[in-house]
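Q&A log
Question type: sequence-to-structure
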Amino acid sequence: MTTIGQQFLDAIYAETAPLLVLGAPTPFVAMQMEAKGYKAAYLSGAGMSYFSYGIPDVGILGLDEVAAEVRKFCRVCDLPLLVDVDTGWNDPEKTTQTIIAAGAAGFHIEDQTEDKRCGHLDGKSIVPTTEMAERIKAAVKGKTSGQIKDPNFMIMARTDAFAIEGFEGAIKRIEAYIDAGATAIFAEAMTDLEHYRKIRDVIGKDIPLLANMTEYGKTPLFSQSELASVDVDIMLLPVSLNRAMHGMTTTWLDEIKKTGTTQGMVDRGELRPRHEYSDLIDYNPQTDSRETVLARLNARHK
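Response status: OK
Response body:
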């Protein structure tokens, strides 16, 4: 049986251009992405913190909250899910076991201190290379030490060292993280396209490399074709859809307050009819009942 971790790897290597991986604000949006032909999805720590909990992304959410969110996604969507697990919550082996059991395909774990922040903000602090290497080793152990095993589960090492130790410092850490067992690399907040080419030269062709194209960050918004030219494997858009929802909601709130109606949004096709989202979740209100819906959900996990 092919594991979800292997399915994620297959999706990466099936593409000639970097695999587009978007953050999904909700399970429903992940289902929309699947319907549109995307091959993987992302659960963003910043996206969860800001848009689901209304709090800053400073490491307040824990393993229980993130695992619960993963289970919600995997209950209704078949896309391999890459998850942000911050620093691993002091027990990376348990984190790996828990996220595998919840249904995800992989996660990235970072070398920031517990008092973490968004990778594109100033004022970050990072742990020593040896401490991060121990995080990775423990995470790798969790792939096969839990009740549910996935030897192909992706342990992606994210380094925030570029902003603190410079590019050469980041390269040294990347080499150490691969030696510790990381199976993919996420070099955060790079400022030059050539950085990715140099990282590829160091890590070789068999380690997936992710580039974070978050808007308003320190990294220019390189296109998919530009990233392909430097052998990036995954193009991450972590909160693009969250930003879109925030922007349009702000616009709509102003319009409703001003006009006292949603008719304009309906006329412009910005508010979609019920049958579209019923169709997406495979629900027919004329024939379905609680029992038929539960039966379909339960059948997905047999």
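Response note: The longest helix spans residues 240-259.
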